[in-house]
TrEMBL record:
<comment type="pathway">
    <text>Amino-acid biosynthesis; L-arginine biosynthesis; L-ornithine and N-acetyl-L-glutamate from L-glutamate and N(2)-acetyl-L-ornithine (cyclic): step 1/1.</text>
</comment>
<dbReference type="Pfam" id="PF01960">
    <property type="entry name" value="ArgJ"/>
</dbReference>
<keyword id="KW-0068">Autocatalytic cleavage</keyword>
<comment type="function">
    <text>Catalyzes two activities which are involved in the cyclic version of arginine biosynthesis: the synthesis of N-acetylglutamate from glutamate and acetyl-CoA as the acetyl donor, and of ornithine by transacetylation between N(2)-acetylornithine and glutamate.</text>
</comment>
<dbReference type="GO" id="GO:0004358">
    <property type="term" value="F:L-glutamate N-acetyltransferase activity, acting on acetyl-L-ornithine as donor"/>
</dbReference>
<feature type="active site" description="Nucleophile">
    <location>
        <position position="197"/>
    </location>
</feature>
<feature type="binding site">
    <location>
        <position position="283"/>
    </location>
    <ligand>
        <name>substrate</name>
    </ligand>
</feature>
<feature type="binding site">
    <location>
        <position position="160"/>
    </location>
    <ligand>
        <name>substrate</name>
    </ligand>
</feature>
<dbReference type="InterPro" id="IPR042195">
    <property type="entry name" value="ArgJ_beta_C"/>
</dbReference>
<dbReference type="InterPro" id="IPR002813">
    <property type="entry name" value="Arg_biosynth_ArgJ"/>
</dbReference>
<feature type="binding site">
    <location>
        <position position="414"/>
    </location>
    <ligand>
        <name>substrate</name>
    </ligand>
</feature>
<dbReference type="InterPro" id="IPR016117">
    <property type="entry name" value="ArgJ-like_dom_sf"/>
</dbReference>
<feature type="site" description="Involved in the stabilization of negative charge on the oxyanion by the formation of the oxyanion hole">
    <location>
        <position position="121"/>
    </location>
</feature>
<feature type="binding site">
    <location>
        <position position="197"/>
    </location>
    <ligand>
        <name>substrate</name>
    </ligand>
</feature>
<keyword id="KW-0012">Acyltransferase</keyword>
<keyword id="KW-0511">Multifunctional enzyme</keyword>
<feature type="site" description="Involved in the stabilization of negative charge on the oxyanion by the formation of the oxyanion hole">
    <location>
        <position position="122"/>
    </location>
</feature>
Length: 414
Protein backbone atom coordinates (compact mmCIF):
# COMPACT_ATOMS: atom_id res chain seq x y z
CA UNK A 1 0.00 0.00 0.00
CA UNK A 2 1.62 3.24 -1.06
CA UNK A 3 1.04 5.68 1.78
CA UNK A 4 3.12 7.74 4.12
CA UNK A 5 2.97 5.65 7.27
CA UNK A 6 3.47 8.73 9.44
CA UNK A 7 0.29 10.35 8.14
CA UNK A 8 -2.00 7.31 8.56
CA UNK A 9 -2.16 5.34 11.76
CA UNK A 10 -3.96 1.99 11.72
CA UNK A 11 -5.99 1.37 14.88
CA UNK A 12 -8.13 -1.54 16.10
CA UNK A 13 -11.81 -1.67 15.27
CA UNK A 14 -14.22 -0.63 12.53
CA UNK A 15 -17.49 1.31 12.48
CA UNK A 16 -17.34 2.32 16.16
CA UNK A 17 -13.75 3.66 15.99
CA UNK A 18 -14.76 7.26 15.15
CA UNK A 19 -16.19 9.57 17.83
CA UNK A 20 -19.92 9.38 18.46
CA UNK A 21 -20.59 6.12 16.59
CA UNK A 22 -22.17 3.12 18.29
CA UNK A 23 -23.17 -0.30 17.02
CA UNK A 24 -25.34 -3.21 18.09
CA UNK A 25 -26.27 -6.63 16.73
CA UNK A 26 -28.82 -9.34 17.46
CA UNK A 27 -30.09 -12.76 16.38
CA UNK A 28 -33.47 -11.99 14.79
CA UNK A 29 -33.89 -15.44 13.21
CA UNK A 30 -34.45 -14.11 9.67
CA UNK A 31 -32.85 -17.10 7.92
CA UNK A 32 -30.00 -18.30 10.13
CA UNK A 33 -30.90 -20.24 13.26
CA UNK A 34 -27.57 -20.20 15.07
CA UNK A 35 -26.08 -16.71 14.80
CA UNK A 36 -26.62 -12.96 14.86
CA UNK A 37 -28.15 -11.70 11.62
CA UNK A 38 -28.98 -8.03 12.22
CA UNK A 39 -26.80 -5.02 12.94
CA UNK A 40 -27.32 -1.34 13.64
CA UNK A 41 -24.98 1.63 13.37
CA UNK A 42 -25.95 4.84 15.17
CA UNK A 43 -24.36 8.27 15.41
CA UNK A 44 -25.00 10.53 18.40
CA UNK A 45 -24.82 13.54 16.10
CA UNK A 46 -26.54 13.93 12.71
CA UNK A 47 -24.34 12.85 9.78
CA UNK A 48 -23.74 13.87 6.21
CA UNK A 49 -24.23 10.76 4.09
CA UNK A 50 -22.71 9.68 0.80
CA UNK A 51 -23.36 6.49 -1.14
CA UNK A 52 -22.57 4.48 -4.23
CA UNK A 53 -24.84 1.72 -5.48
CA UNK A 54 -25.17 -1.24 -7.84
CA UNK A 55 -25.27 -0.63 -11.60
CA UNK A 56 -27.50 -3.69 -12.04
CA UNK A 57 -30.83 -2.60 -13.58
CA UNK A 58 -32.49 -4.91 -11.03
CA UNK A 59 -32.08 -2.84 -7.87
CA UNK A 60 -33.12 -4.14 -4.47
CA UNK A 61 -35.58 -2.08 -2.41
CA UNK A 62 -32.94 -0.98 0.16
CA UNK A 63 -30.78 0.40 -2.67
CA UNK A 64 -33.65 2.61 -3.84
CA UNK A 65 -34.41 3.67 -0.26
CA UNK A 66 -30.78 4.60 0.47
CA UNK A 67 -30.35 6.45 -2.83
CA UNK A 68 -33.33 8.61 -1.85
CA UNK A 69 -31.86 9.20 1.62
CA UNK A 70 -28.42 10.17 0.30
CA UNK A 71 -29.75 12.49 -2.40
CA UNK A 72 -32.71 13.83 -0.40
CA UNK A 73 -30.65 16.09 1.81
CA UNK A 74 -31.89 14.79 5.20
CA UNK A 75 -29.19 14.17 7.79
CA UNK A 76 -28.39 10.50 8.43
CA UNK A 77 -28.46 9.10 11.97
CA UNK A 78 -28.63 5.32 11.76
CA UNK A 79 -28.26 2.27 9.52
CA UNK A 80 -30.18 -0.97 10.00
CA UNK A 81 -28.75 -4.05 8.25
CA UNK A 82 -30.04 -7.60 7.95
CA UNK A 83 -28.47 -10.76 6.53
CA UNK A 84 -30.32 -13.80 5.17
CA UNK A 85 -32.88 -12.16 2.88
CA UNK A 86 -31.91 -9.51 0.33
CA UNK A 87 -35.31 -7.79 -0.11
CA UNK A 88 -34.62 -7.77 -3.87
CA UNK A 89 -37.26 -8.40 -6.59
CA UNK A 90 -39.89 -7.81 -3.91
CA UNK A 91 -41.93 -5.03 -5.57
CA UNK A 92 -43.92 -2.39 -3.72
CA UNK A 93 -44.18 -4.63 -0.67
CA UNK A 94 -40.37 -4.66 -0.41
CA UNK A 95 -40.25 -0.85 -0.56
CA UNK A 96 -42.93 -0.64 2.14
CA UNK A 97 -40.77 -2.92 4.31
CA UNK A 98 -37.83 -0.49 4.02
CA UNK A 99 -40.16 2.23 5.23
CA UNK A 100 -41.39 0.08 8.12
CA UNK A 101 -37.84 -0.84 9.15
CA UNK A 102 -36.85 2.84 9.15
CA UNK A 103 -40.01 3.77 11.07
CA UNK A 104 -39.27 1.15 13.74
CA UNK A 105 -35.70 2.47 14.14
CA UNK A 106 -36.90 6.10 14.18
CA UNK A 107 -39.35 5.31 16.95
CA UNK A 108 -36.90 3.54 19.29
CA UNK A 109 -34.03 5.95 18.61
CA UNK A 110 -36.07 9.16 18.66
CA UNK A 111 -34.89 10.32 15.22
CA UNK A 112 -36.70 11.18 11.96
CA UNK A 113 -37.62 8.24 9.71
CA UNK A 114 -35.82 9.85 6.74
CA UNK A 115 -32.55 9.81 8.67
CA UNK A 116 -32.51 5.97 8.79
CA UNK A 117 -30.67 4.01 6.08
CA UNK A 118 -31.41 0.31 5.51
CA UNK A 119 -29.42 -2.52 3.91
CA UNK A 120 -30.22 -6.17 3.23
CA UNK A 121 -28.20 -9.11 1.90
CA UNK A 122 -29.04 -12.74 1.25
CA UNK A 123 -31.54 -14.67 -0.85
CA UNK A 124 -33.25 -12.76 -3.69
CA UNK A 125 -37.05 -12.85 -4.16
CA UNK A 126 -38.19 -13.56 -0.60
CA UNK A 127 -40.08 -11.03 1.50
CA UNK A 128 -38.61 -9.92 4.82
CA UNK A 129 -40.33 -11.33 7.94
CA UNK A 130 -41.23 -7.87 9.26
CA UNK A 131 -42.25 -9.04 12.73
CA UNK A 132 -38.71 -10.37 13.22
CA UNK A 133 -37.07 -7.32 11.65
CA UNK A 134 -39.05 -4.94 13.88
CA UNK A 135 -38.34 -7.06 16.96
CA UNK A 136 -34.66 -7.03 16.02
CA UNK A 137 -34.62 -3.24 15.73
CA UNK A 138 -36.24 -2.91 19.17
CA UNK A 139 -33.79 -5.41 20.68
CA UNK A 140 -30.72 -3.58 19.29
CA UNK A 141 -31.52 -0.01 20.38
CA UNK A 142 -30.69 -0.50 24.09
CA UNK A 143 -27.55 -2.49 23.17
CA UNK A 144 -25.92 0.34 21.17
CA UNK A 145 -22.33 0.71 22.33
CA UNK A 146 -19.19 2.50 21.10
CA UNK A 147 -16.76 -0.30 22.00
CA UNK A 148 -14.47 -2.06 19.51
CA UNK A 149 -16.22 -5.34 20.42
CA UNK A 150 -19.63 -3.94 19.56
CA UNK A 151 -18.37 -2.89 16.11
CA UNK A 152 -16.73 -6.29 15.55
CA UNK A 153 -19.92 -8.11 16.54
CA UNK A 154 -21.85 -5.97 14.03
CA UNK A 155 -19.36 -6.86 11.28
CA UNK A 156 -19.99 -10.56 12.02
CA UNK A 157 -23.78 -10.18 12.04
CA UNK A 158 -23.91 -8.89 8.43
CA UNK A 159 -22.03 -11.87 6.92
CA UNK A 160 -23.68 -14.32 4.50
CA UNK A 161 -21.29 -16.82 2.88
CA UNK A 162 -18.29 -14.84 4.15
CA UNK A 163 -15.91 -16.99 6.20
CA UNK A 164 -14.50 -14.07 8.18
CA UNK A 165 -15.66 -10.65 9.28
CA UNK A 166 -14.11 -7.60 7.65
CA UNK A 167 -13.32 -4.32 9.41
CA UNK A 168 -10.58 -1.69 9.50
CA UNK A 169 -9.92 1.73 11.06
CA UNK A 170 -7.31 4.49 10.69
CA UNK A 171 -6.51 7.90 12.13
CA UNK A 172 -5.22 10.88 10.20
CA UNK A 173 -4.49 14.49 11.14
CA UNK A 174 -6.65 17.10 9.40
CA UNK A 175 -6.08 20.76 10.19
CA UNK A 176 -4.06 19.79 13.25
CA UNK A 177 -6.90 17.64 14.63
CA UNK A 178 -6.95 13.84 14.90
CA UNK A 179 -9.71 12.38 12.72
CA UNK A 180 -10.79 8.73 12.63
CA UNK A 181 -12.28 6.73 9.77
CA UNK A 182 -13.51 3.17 10.27
CA UNK A 183 -15.43 0.70 8.20
CA UNK A 184 -16.88 -2.77 7.85
CA UNK A 185 -18.13 -4.74 4.90
CA UNK A 186 -19.43 -8.09 3.85
CA UNK A 187 -19.13 -9.83 0.52
CA UNK A 188 -17.98 -13.20 -0.71
CA UNK A 189 -19.96 -14.18 -3.80
CA UNK A 190 -21.99 -12.54 -6.58
CA UNK A 191 -19.14 -10.09 -6.49
CA UNK A 192 -18.25 -8.19 -9.61
CA UNK A 193 -18.83 -4.66 -8.69
CA UNK A 194 -19.63 -1.98 -10.41
CA UNK A 195 -20.21 -2.47 -6.72
CA UNK A 196 -20.95 -6.08 -5.65
CA UNK A 197 -23.15 -8.19 -3.19
CA UNK A 198 -21.25 -6.33 -1.05
CA UNK A 199 -22.32 -4.01 1.60
CA UNK A 200 -19.81 -1.50 2.92
CA UNK A 201 -20.29 0.96 5.78
CA UNK A 202 -17.73 3.65 6.54
CA UNK A 203 -18.03 6.03 9.49
CA UNK A 204 -15.94 9.09 10.26
CA UNK A 205 -15.89 11.93 12.77
CA UNK A 206 -14.40 14.25 10.11
CA UNK A 207 -16.13 17.54 9.35
CA UNK A 208 -16.53 17.63 5.56
CA UNK A 209 -19.18 19.03 3.22
CA UNK A 210 -21.73 16.58 1.81
CA UNK A 211 -20.65 17.39 -1.75
CA UNK A 212 -16.98 16.64 -1.11
CA UNK A 213 -17.81 13.52 0.92
CA UNK A 214 -19.79 12.17 -2.05
CA UNK A 215 -17.09 13.13 -4.53
CA UNK A 216 -14.35 11.51 -2.43
CA UNK A 217 -16.35 8.25 -2.31
CA UNK A 218 -17.43 8.27 -5.97
CA UNK A 219 -13.84 8.82 -7.14
CA UNK A 220 -12.36 6.25 -4.80
CA UNK A 221 -14.62 3.31 -5.63
CA UNK A 222 -13.16 3.29 -9.17
CA UNK A 223 -9.85 2.06 -7.78
CA UNK A 224 -11.14 -0.04 -4.88
CA UNK A 225 -14.53 -1.82 -4.83
CA UNK A 226 -14.91 -1.58 -8.61
CA UNK A 227 -11.55 -3.30 -9.10
CA UNK A 228 -12.51 -6.54 -7.37
CA UNK A 229 -14.26 -9.57 -8.79
CA UNK A 230 -15.03 -12.98 -7.36
CA UNK A 231 -17.33 -14.40 -10.01
CA UNK A 232 -18.37 -11.81 -12.60
CA UNK A 233 -21.92 -11.47 -11.25
CA UNK A 234 -23.04 -7.93 -10.44
CA UNK A 235 -25.42 -8.07 -7.47
CA UNK A 236 -28.76 -6.35 -7.01
CA UNK A 237 -27.90 -5.02 -3.56
CA UNK A 238 -24.49 -3.40 -3.74
CA UNK A 239 -24.22 -0.45 -1.44
CA UNK A 240 -21.40 1.51 0.11
CA UNK A 241 -22.40 4.22 2.57
CA UNK A 242 -20.21 6.80 4.27
CA UNK A 243 -21.46 8.74 7.30
CA UNK A 244 -19.57 11.79 8.61
CA UNK A 245 -20.69 13.40 11.89
CA UNK A 246 -18.03 16.11 12.27
CA UNK A 247 -17.42 15.34 15.97
CA UNK A 248 -13.61 15.35 15.59
CA UNK A 249 -13.87 19.14 15.41
CA UNK A 250 -11.44 19.62 12.51
CA UNK A 251 -11.94 22.77 10.38
CA UNK A 252 -14.71 21.71 7.98
CA UNK A 253 -13.39 20.59 4.60
CA UNK A 254 -15.27 22.63 2.00
CA UNK A 255 -12.64 22.82 -0.75
CA UNK A 256 -10.08 20.50 -2.33
CA UNK A 257 -7.16 21.53 -0.13
CA UNK A 258 -4.44 19.45 1.55
CA UNK A 259 -6.90 18.31 4.25
CA UNK A 260 -9.23 16.98 1.54
CA UNK A 261 -6.33 15.10 -0.09
CA UNK A 262 -5.35 13.60 3.29
CA UNK A 263 -8.98 12.58 3.91
CA UNK A 264 -9.16 10.95 0.46
CA UNK A 265 -5.96 9.04 1.18
CA UNK A 266 -7.35 7.71 4.46
CA UNK A 267 -10.69 6.82 2.81
CA UNK A 268 -8.76 5.01 0.05
CA UNK A 269 -6.87 2.99 2.65
CA UNK A 270 -10.16 1.92 4.28
CA UNK A 271 -11.84 1.07 0.97
CA UNK A 272 -8.83 -0.74 -0.52
CA UNK A 273 -8.33 -2.79 2.65
CA UNK A 274 -12.01 -3.80 2.74
CA UNK A 275 -11.95 -4.59 -1.02
CA UNK A 276 -8.96 -6.91 -0.62
CA UNK A 277 -10.58 -8.59 2.38
CA UNK A 278 -13.61 -9.38 0.20
CA UNK A 279 -11.62 -10.60 -2.79
CA UNK A 280 -9.47 -12.76 -0.51
CA UNK A 281 -12.59 -14.29 1.06
CA UNK A 282 -14.30 -15.12 -2.23
CA UNK A 283 -16.58 -18.13 -2.00
CA UNK A 284 -14.52 -21.32 -1.74
CA UNK A 285 -11.29 -19.51 -2.57
CA UNK A 286 -7.81 -20.41 -1.30
CA UNK A 287 -5.92 -17.33 -2.53
CA UNK A 288 -6.20 -13.59 -3.03
CA UNK A 289 -5.11 -12.92 -6.62
CA UNK A 290 -3.83 -9.41 -7.37
CA UNK A 291 -3.14 -8.16 -10.90
CA UNK A 292 -1.22 -4.97 -11.59
CA UNK A 293 -0.95 -3.58 -15.10
CA UNK A 294 1.75 -0.94 -15.44
CA UNK A 295 3.34 0.97 -18.30
CA UNK A 296 -0.13 1.75 -19.65
CA UNK A 297 -0.93 4.79 -21.80
CA UNK A 298 -3.95 5.69 -19.62
CA UNK A 299 -5.39 4.75 -16.25
CA UNK A 300 -8.52 3.48 -17.98
CA UNK A 301 -6.54 1.15 -20.24
CA UNK A 302 -4.72 -0.26 -17.20
CA UNK A 303 -8.02 -0.79 -15.36
CA UNK A 304 -9.65 -2.62 -18.27
CA UNK A 305 -6.66 -4.95 -18.72
CA UNK A 306 -6.25 -5.73 -15.01
CA UNK A 307 -9.99 -6.36 -14.60
CA UNK A 308 -10.05 -8.69 -17.63
CA UNK A 309 -7.34 -10.91 -16.13
CA UNK A 310 -8.96 -10.98 -12.70
CA UNK A 311 -12.32 -12.11 -14.14
CA UNK A 312 -10.93 -14.82 -16.44
CA UNK A 313 -12.24 -18.18 -15.22
CA UNK A 314 -9.34 -19.99 -16.89
CA UNK A 315 -6.76 -17.78 -15.17
CA UNK A 316 -8.58 -18.18 -11.83
CA UNK A 317 -8.55 -21.97 -12.24
CA UNK A 318 -4.82 -21.88 -13.04
CA UNK A 319 -4.17 -19.90 -9.84
CA UNK A 320 -6.11 -22.56 -7.89
CA UNK A 321 -3.83 -25.21 -9.43
CA UNK A 322 -0.68 -23.12 -8.72
CA UNK A 323 -0.01 -23.37 -12.46
CA UNK A 324 2.01 -20.59 -14.15
CA UNK A 325 -0.22 -20.74 -17.21
CA UNK A 326 0.76 -17.31 -18.56
CA UNK A 327 -0.97 -17.89 -21.90
CA UNK A 328 -4.32 -17.48 -20.15
CA UNK A 329 -3.29 -14.08 -18.77
CA UNK A 330 -2.15 -12.84 -22.18
CA UNK A 331 -5.34 -14.22 -23.70
CA UNK A 332 -7.53 -12.37 -21.16
CA UNK A 333 -5.65 -9.14 -21.85
CA UNK A 334 -6.14 -9.71 -25.57
CA UNK A 335 -9.95 -9.89 -25.45
CA UNK A 336 -10.34 -7.07 -22.92
CA UNK A 337 -11.06 -4.51 -25.61
CA UNK A 338 -7.98 -2.45 -24.69
CA UNK A 339 -5.34 -1.98 -27.35
CA UNK A 340 -1.70 -2.94 -26.67
CA UNK A 341 1.23 -4.69 -28.39
CA UNK A 342 1.49 -8.28 -27.10
CA UNK A 343 5.10 -8.42 -28.30
CA UNK A 344 6.09 -5.77 -25.78
CA UNK A 345 4.58 -7.37 -22.67
CA UNK A 346 6.72 -8.36 -19.70
CA UNK A 347 4.99 -10.55 -17.11
CA UNK A 348 6.03 -11.34 -13.54
CA UNK A 349 4.58 -13.47 -10.73
CA UNK A 350 5.30 -12.61 -7.13
CA UNK A 351 4.32 -13.57 -3.59
CA UNK A 352 6.07 -13.83 -0.22
CA UNK A 353 7.86 -16.87 -1.71
CA UNK A 354 9.67 -14.70 -4.29
CA UNK A 355 9.35 -12.92 -7.64
CA UNK A 356 10.06 -14.23 -11.12
CA UNK A 357 9.75 -13.09 -14.70
CA UNK A 358 7.64 -15.39 -16.89
CA UNK A 359 7.46 -13.44 -20.16
CA UNK A 360 9.82 -10.92 -21.73
CA UNK A 361 8.60 -9.02 -24.81
CA UNK A 362 5.66 -11.39 -25.25
CA UNK A 363 7.76 -14.56 -25.20
CA UNK A 364 8.30 -17.03 -22.35
CA UNK A 365 11.69 -16.81 -20.64
CA UNK A 366 13.47 -19.91 -19.41
CA UNK A 367 12.02 -20.26 -15.94
CA UNK A 368 11.63 -23.09 -13.43
CA UNK A 369 8.04 -24.41 -13.30
CA UNK A 370 8.82 -25.72 -9.82
CA UNK A 371 9.87 -22.26 -8.63
CA UNK A 372 6.78 -20.71 -10.25
CA UNK A 373 4.50 -23.21 -8.51
CA UNK A 374 6.14 -22.34 -5.19
CA UNK A 375 5.42 -18.63 -5.75
CA UNK A 376 1.82 -19.40 -6.78
CA UNK A 377 1.16 -21.59 -3.71
CA UNK A 378 0.99 -18.66 -1.26
CA UNK A 379 -2.32 -17.28 0.09
CA UNK A 380 -1.66 -13.96 -1.71
CA UNK A 381 -0.39 -14.05 -5.28
CA UNK A 382 0.38 -11.14 -7.63
CA UNK A 383 0.77 -10.97 -11.40
CA UNK A 384 2.41 -7.84 -12.82
CA UNK A 385 2.12 -7.03 -16.53
CA UNK A 386 4.21 -4.22 -18.02
CA UNK A 387 2.84 -3.18 -21.43
CA UNK A 388 5.45 -0.42 -22.00
CA UNK A 389 3.17 2.25 -23.44
CA UNK A 390 3.30 4.96 -20.77
CA UNK A 391 3.36 5.44 -17.01
CA UNK A 392 -0.24 4.74 -15.96
CA UNK A 393 -1.05 1.75 -13.76
CA UNK A 394 -3.99 0.02 -12.07
CA UNK A 395 -4.49 -2.91 -9.73
CA UNK A 396 -7.41 -5.34 -9.55
CA UNK A 397 -8.15 -8.03 -6.97
CA UNK A 398 -9.85 -11.38 -7.26
CA UNK A 399 -9.39 -14.94 -6.14
CA UNK A 400 -8.91 -18.43 -7.44
CA UNK A 401 -11.82 -20.52 -8.75
CA UNK A 402 -12.25 -23.72 -6.76
CA UNK A 403 -14.50 -26.80 -6.58
CA UNK A 404 -16.01 -25.29 -3.43
CA UNK A 405 -17.29 -22.20 -5.29
CA UNK A 406 -19.61 -24.43 -7.31
CA UNK A 407 -20.67 -26.40 -4.22
CA UNK A 408 -21.57 -23.25 -2.25
CA UNK A 409 -23.63 -21.80 -5.10
CA UNK A 410 -25.31 -25.05 -6.13
CA UNK A 411 -27.22 -25.26 -2.86
CA UNK A 412 -27.30 -21.66 -1.56
CA UNK A 413 -31.09 -21.48 -1.17
CA UNK A 414 -31.45 -24.86 0.50
Amino acid sequence: MEMSEAALKKIPGGVTAAKGFKAASTAAGIKYKDRKDMAMIYSQAPCRSAGTFTTNVVKAAPVKWDKDQVTGGAAAHAVVINAGIANACTGEEGMAYCSRTAAAAAQVLGIPQESVLVASTGVIGKQLPMDRIEAGVKAMAPLLDGSVQSGTDASRAIMTTDTKNKEVAVQVELGGVQVTIGGMCKGSGMIHPNMCTMLGFVTTDAAISKELLQEALSQDIKDTYNMISVDGDTSTNDTVLVLANGLAGNPEITEKNSDYMAFCKALNYINETLSKKMAGDGEGCTALFEVTVKGAATKDQARVLAKSVITSSLTKAAIFGHDANWGRILCAMGYSGADFDPEKVDLFFESTAGRMQIIKDGVAVDYSEEEATKILSEPEVTAIADIKMGDARATAWGCDLTYDYVKINADYRS
